[in-house]
Specification:
The chain is α+β, with helices and mostly antiparallel strands. The chain contains 10 helices and 10 strands.
Length: 238
Protein backbone atom coordinates (compact mmCIF):
# COMPACT_ATOMS: atom_id res chain seq x y z
CA UNK A 1 0.00 0.00 0.00
CA UNK A 2 1.19 3.55 -0.68
CA UNK A 3 1.25 5.59 2.48
CA UNK A 4 0.89 9.36 2.62
CA UNK A 5 1.48 12.04 5.17
CA UNK A 6 -0.98 14.72 6.30
CA UNK A 7 -0.57 16.45 2.94
CA UNK A 8 -1.04 13.20 1.02
CA UNK A 9 2.58 13.14 -0.07
CA UNK A 10 3.89 9.63 -0.62
CA UNK A 11 5.81 8.13 2.27
CA UNK A 12 8.24 5.60 0.77
CA UNK A 13 7.95 1.92 1.59
CA UNK A 14 11.15 1.60 3.58
CA UNK A 15 10.74 -2.15 3.84
CA UNK A 16 14.24 -3.13 4.84
CA UNK A 17 16.63 -0.23 5.08
CA UNK A 18 19.92 -1.81 4.11
CA UNK A 19 22.33 -0.61 6.77
CA UNK A 20 24.89 -2.64 8.65
CA UNK A 21 25.05 -2.40 12.43
CA UNK A 22 28.52 -3.25 13.66
CA UNK A 23 27.42 -3.04 17.29
CA UNK A 24 25.76 -6.48 17.17
CA UNK A 25 26.68 -9.85 15.68
CA UNK A 26 23.46 -11.85 15.94
CA UNK A 27 19.68 -11.38 15.74
CA UNK A 28 18.30 -9.75 18.90
CA UNK A 29 14.67 -10.38 17.88
CA UNK A 30 13.89 -6.68 18.14
CA UNK A 31 11.42 -6.98 15.25
CA UNK A 32 12.68 -3.84 13.51
CA UNK A 33 13.04 -5.45 10.07
CA UNK A 34 9.56 -7.01 10.30
CA UNK A 35 8.01 -3.71 11.35
CA UNK A 36 9.30 -2.01 8.20
CA UNK A 37 7.39 -4.21 5.76
CA UNK A 38 7.35 -7.65 4.16
CA UNK A 39 10.03 -8.98 1.81
CA UNK A 40 10.02 -9.26 -1.98
CA UNK A 41 9.75 -12.80 -3.35
CA UNK A 42 12.35 -14.52 -5.50
CA UNK A 43 12.25 -17.61 -7.71
CA UNK A 44 13.60 -19.60 -4.78
CA UNK A 45 10.35 -18.78 -2.93
CA UNK A 46 8.05 -20.12 -5.63
CA UNK A 47 7.53 -23.48 -3.95
CA UNK A 48 6.40 -21.77 -0.73
CA UNK A 49 3.41 -20.41 -2.63
CA UNK A 50 2.78 -23.43 -4.86
CA UNK A 51 2.71 -25.73 -1.82
CA UNK A 52 0.33 -23.41 0.02
CA UNK A 53 2.82 -22.62 2.76
CA UNK A 54 2.27 -18.92 2.04
CA UNK A 55 -1.17 -18.17 0.60
CA UNK A 56 -1.79 -15.79 -2.29
CA UNK A 57 -4.20 -13.77 -0.18
CA UNK A 58 -1.26 -12.61 1.95
CA UNK A 59 0.60 -11.21 -1.08
CA UNK A 60 0.33 -8.12 -3.24
CA UNK A 61 1.97 -6.98 -6.45
CA UNK A 62 3.78 -3.74 -7.13
CA UNK A 63 3.28 -3.48 -10.88
CA UNK A 64 5.65 -2.28 -13.57
CA UNK A 65 5.69 1.52 -13.62
CA UNK A 66 4.84 2.01 -9.92
CA UNK A 67 7.06 3.85 -7.52
CA UNK A 68 8.70 1.76 -4.83
CA UNK A 69 11.44 2.37 -2.33
CA UNK A 70 14.80 0.91 -3.40
CA UNK A 71 16.42 -0.31 -0.22
CA UNK A 72 19.88 -0.48 -1.76
CA UNK A 73 19.84 2.94 -3.46
CA UNK A 74 17.86 4.51 -0.63
CA UNK A 75 15.26 6.37 -2.68
CA UNK A 76 12.03 5.93 -4.65
CA UNK A 77 12.45 4.39 -8.08
CA UNK A 78 10.17 3.21 -10.89
CA UNK A 79 9.66 -0.54 -10.84
CA UNK A 80 10.62 -2.22 -14.13
CA UNK A 81 8.79 -5.51 -13.50
CA UNK A 82 6.54 -7.14 -10.91
CA UNK A 83 7.51 -7.10 -7.28
CA UNK A 84 5.63 -9.68 -5.23
CA UNK A 85 5.53 -8.73 -1.54
CA UNK A 86 3.91 -9.85 1.69
CA UNK A 87 1.08 -7.59 2.84
CA UNK A 88 1.31 -5.39 5.89
CA UNK A 89 -0.96 -5.39 8.93
CA UNK A 90 -3.82 -2.89 8.68
CA UNK A 91 -2.48 0.63 8.14
CA UNK A 92 1.00 -0.08 9.50
CA UNK A 93 4.14 -1.30 7.74
CA UNK A 94 4.39 -4.41 9.93
CA UNK A 95 4.61 -7.67 8.01
CA UNK A 96 1.33 -9.54 8.27
CA UNK A 97 3.20 -12.53 9.74
CA UNK A 98 4.89 -10.54 12.48
CA UNK A 99 3.65 -11.33 15.99
CA UNK A 100 4.31 -8.25 18.09
CA UNK A 101 3.42 -10.07 21.32
CA UNK A 102 6.82 -11.72 21.37
CA UNK A 103 8.54 -10.19 18.33
CA UNK A 104 8.34 -13.49 16.46
CA UNK A 105 7.59 -14.63 12.91
CA UNK A 106 4.51 -16.78 12.33
CA UNK A 107 6.11 -18.44 9.29
CA UNK A 108 9.66 -18.64 10.63
CA UNK A 109 10.27 -22.18 9.34
CA UNK A 110 9.02 -21.31 5.84
CA UNK A 111 10.10 -17.68 5.57
CA UNK A 112 11.15 -16.26 2.15
CA UNK A 113 14.75 -16.06 0.99
CA UNK A 114 15.11 -12.32 1.72
CA UNK A 115 14.16 -12.88 5.36
CA UNK A 116 16.68 -15.71 5.60
CA UNK A 117 19.40 -13.61 4.01
CA UNK A 118 18.85 -10.45 6.04
CA UNK A 119 21.27 -9.91 8.87
CA UNK A 120 21.13 -6.36 10.15
CA UNK A 121 24.71 -6.61 11.42
CA UNK A 122 26.06 -7.77 8.02
CA UNK A 123 24.01 -6.89 4.93
CA UNK A 124 26.31 -8.38 2.29
CA UNK A 125 24.14 -11.47 1.73
CA UNK A 126 20.87 -9.53 1.29
CA UNK A 127 22.59 -7.04 -1.00
CA UNK A 128 23.93 -9.91 -3.11
CA UNK A 129 20.47 -11.41 -3.80
CA UNK A 130 18.32 -8.29 -3.58
CA UNK A 131 17.91 -7.63 -7.31
CA UNK A 132 18.30 -11.21 -8.54
CA UNK A 133 15.69 -13.76 -9.64
CA UNK A 134 12.67 -11.80 -8.50
CA UNK A 135 9.40 -13.69 -8.72
CA UNK A 136 6.62 -12.37 -11.00
CA UNK A 137 2.93 -13.09 -11.36
CA UNK A 138 3.64 -14.88 -14.63
CA UNK A 139 5.89 -17.35 -12.84
CA UNK A 140 2.94 -18.35 -10.67
CA UNK A 141 -0.20 -18.16 -12.83
CA UNK A 142 0.84 -18.46 -16.49
CA UNK A 143 -0.45 -22.05 -16.66
CA UNK A 144 -3.90 -21.21 -15.31
CA UNK A 145 -6.12 -21.06 -18.38
CA UNK A 146 -7.55 -17.62 -19.00
CA UNK A 147 -6.20 -16.03 -15.84
CA UNK A 148 -2.83 -14.93 -17.19
CA UNK A 149 -4.52 -13.50 -20.30
CA UNK A 150 -6.76 -11.48 -18.01
CA UNK A 151 -3.79 -10.18 -16.04
CA UNK A 152 -1.91 -9.26 -19.23
CA UNK A 153 -4.94 -7.41 -20.56
CA UNK A 154 -5.27 -5.49 -17.31
CA UNK A 155 -1.56 -4.67 -17.33
CA UNK A 156 -1.86 -3.30 -20.86
CA UNK A 157 -5.07 -1.33 -20.41
CA UNK A 158 -4.16 -0.01 -16.98
CA UNK A 159 -0.44 0.54 -17.48
CA UNK A 160 1.25 3.25 -15.47
CA UNK A 161 2.88 4.53 -18.65
CA UNK A 162 -0.60 5.34 -19.97
CA UNK A 163 -1.62 7.00 -16.73
CA UNK A 164 1.59 9.03 -16.70
CA UNK A 165 0.90 10.18 -20.26
CA UNK A 166 -2.64 11.26 -19.44
CA UNK A 167 -1.51 13.06 -16.28
CA UNK A 168 0.96 15.09 -18.34
CA UNK A 169 -1.86 16.09 -20.69
CA UNK A 170 -4.15 17.34 -17.91
CA UNK A 171 -2.76 20.88 -18.17
CA UNK A 172 -2.57 20.88 -21.95
CA UNK A 173 -4.87 21.22 -24.94
CA UNK A 174 -5.93 17.58 -24.66
CA UNK A 175 -7.22 17.99 -21.12
CA UNK A 176 -10.64 16.52 -21.88
CA UNK A 177 -9.20 13.44 -23.61
CA UNK A 178 -6.76 12.97 -20.74
CA UNK A 179 -9.53 13.04 -18.12
CA UNK A 180 -11.59 10.57 -20.14
CA UNK A 181 -8.55 8.32 -20.54
CA UNK A 182 -7.93 8.26 -16.79
CA UNK A 183 -11.61 7.63 -16.09
CA UNK A 184 -11.60 4.68 -18.53
CA UNK A 185 -8.62 3.17 -16.74
CA UNK A 186 -10.18 3.65 -13.31
CA UNK A 187 -13.43 2.11 -14.50
CA UNK A 188 -11.75 -0.91 -16.07
CA UNK A 189 -9.53 -1.49 -13.04
CA UNK A 190 -12.56 -1.39 -10.78
CA UNK A 191 -14.80 -3.51 -13.01
CA UNK A 192 -12.27 -6.31 -13.65
CA UNK A 193 -11.83 -6.78 -9.92
CA UNK A 194 -15.58 -6.95 -9.44
CA UNK A 195 -15.93 -9.36 -12.37
CA UNK A 196 -13.43 -11.97 -11.16
CA UNK A 197 -15.03 -11.95 -7.71
CA UNK A 198 -18.62 -12.24 -8.90
CA UNK A 199 -18.21 -14.37 -12.02
CA UNK A 200 -14.95 -16.11 -11.27
CA UNK A 201 -15.70 -16.73 -7.58
CA UNK A 202 -12.28 -15.31 -6.72
CA UNK A 203 -11.43 -14.54 -3.10
CA UNK A 204 -11.38 -10.70 -2.88
CA UNK A 205 -8.23 -10.98 -0.79
CA UNK A 206 -6.39 -12.30 -3.87
CA UNK A 207 -7.06 -9.22 -5.99
CA UNK A 208 -4.04 -7.19 -4.94
CA UNK A 209 -1.80 -10.04 -6.02
CA UNK A 210 -3.55 -10.57 -9.36
CA UNK A 211 -3.99 -6.93 -10.41
CA UNK A 212 -1.84 -4.98 -7.99
CA UNK A 213 -3.18 -2.30 -5.70
CA UNK A 214 -6.30 -0.41 -6.89
CA UNK A 215 -5.44 2.54 -9.11
CA UNK A 216 -7.72 4.78 -7.05
CA UNK A 217 -5.01 4.37 -4.41
CA UNK A 218 -1.79 4.29 -6.43
CA UNK A 219 -2.72 7.30 -8.58
CA UNK A 220 -1.59 9.40 -5.64
CA UNK A 221 1.97 8.98 -6.85
CA UNK A 222 1.02 11.27 -9.74
CA UNK A 223 -0.17 13.99 -7.39
CA UNK A 224 -3.85 13.12 -7.80
CA UNK A 225 -6.53 11.58 -5.66
CA UNK A 226 -9.81 10.03 -6.68
CA UNK A 227 -13.21 10.25 -5.07
CA UNK A 228 -16.04 7.99 -6.15
CA UNK A 229 -19.63 9.08 -5.65
CA UNK A 230 -22.67 7.42 -7.14
CA UNK A 231 -20.47 5.25 -9.40
CA UNK A 232 -18.74 8.33 -10.81
CA UNK A 233 -15.07 9.22 -10.39
CA UNK A 234 -13.81 12.67 -9.53
CA UNK A 235 -10.16 13.64 -9.98
CA UNK A 236 -8.78 16.02 -7.39
CA UNK A 237 -5.29 17.45 -6.85
CA UNK A 238 -3.61 16.38 -3.63
Amino acid sequence: MIKTDSKNHIIPDSSLSIKSDNSISECKRCGTCCKKGGPCFHIEDKMLIEKGLILIKYLYTIRKGELAYDNIKGHLTTVTSDLIKIKSQNDSWECIFFDENDNSCKIYDTKPVECRALKCWDTREIEEIYFKNRLTRKDLVCRIEGLWDLIEDHQSRCSYDKIKHFVKELNGEKNKEAIEGIYDILLYDDSIRELVVKKGKMDPENLEFLFGRPIVTTIRMFGLKVEKKNDKYYLLPQ
